[in-house]
Amino acid sequence: QVQLVESGGGSVQAGGSLRLSCAASGRTFSSHTMGWFRQAPGKTREFVATIPWSGGTTYYADSVKGRFTISRDNAKNTAYLQMNSLNPEDTAVYYCAAASLRRVLSYYTAKNDRGYDYWGQGTQVTVSS
Question: Are the CB atoms for 82 and 22 separated by under 8 Å?
């Protein structure tokens, strides 16, 4: 069982930056593919970024590519989402997610919330114009 706690959300003006953190419990963090998703009011949850446990390629949604960077620090049991050049369309609740232990996700599964078994409670990001 993995418990995830997000932090770092807040309010920022357009063009600003935020770094989200996702702290994981337990000793198996380094063996879980991690993902970030977001849900804006009135919209379904959507994929943002993913980073595999196995050292493979990271993937991003087209809407955030070049502006957001996902990373992980296995020594700290923490995943990060660095968000730059924020715009009002990035306003949403951001969720951290972890896939099951040592599960290798395909390109398509990694971008689908069904690929993940553990979820944090979410952190609000609000970008004003």
Answer: no
